Predict the structure.
Amino acid sequence: GERPLAGLAASRGSASWTPLIGFGGAPFTLAAYLVEGRASRDHLAARTLMHADPGAWDALMTWCARLTGDFIAAQVRAGASAAQLFDSWAGSLSPADYRARVAPYSALALSIARRAVSPTTGAPAPLIHFGTGTARLLADMRAAGADAVGVDDRTDLAEAIAVLDGAGPGPCPVQGNLDPALLAAPWEVLAPAVDACLEAGRAAPAHVVNLGHGVPPTTDPDVLTRLVARVHGSADWEATALAGWEAAA
């Protein structure tokens, strides 16, 4: 139909393919789920294991790193043109604990993922390292070896860009960081926020516009389509979004 064709054309631009981002949970997030065995606010059991039994922690984190590294690599070999290592729970860690007991395993996962070549691009996929509540960890996340760092919606994007630029050999591409809560706000509120995110991202050498966390399940798909159209500066695509799925069927 008109709507999906418009979206595909706009997202791929002049390329003959549409970009797809692969995805994998970071070792600490996987380990936290395994150790906690349930939802957790502070991931206390995982953090306790980290300190109480370093040998078990190393074995678990190494296993998680290899598993998620291989999983991302499989997605790249299947055609993903970029990939993201997603650390949902790293924000519960102190910078010292992250550097000593988590970052080396994220680096291992990224190094495994980097070995894969995407048939879409004929090259290894650029890798993004993202976490939530990780404003204090951004420099360390960059040091783990990704090509870009994702910024959550709790962190000022301009400040994050400045921190990352000062933490490594040259400026760092970023991803983020529109607040998902804005997706349910009126367009008159959401549109300026999108523009502000775009403007802040211009300070980075490259900016992957994204939310600062996941899409709420109640989000209207038309809002997402209109948001992407605005990012692309496509009035035609935005008009298609406003027509809605039903009208385009």
Remarks:
- The first strand starts at residue 21 and ends at 25.
- The chain has a mean pLDDT of 90.
- The beta strands are 21-25, 82-87, 117-118, 123-124, 127-131, 148-150, 174-178, 207-211.
- Residues 54-77 form the longest helix (24 residues).
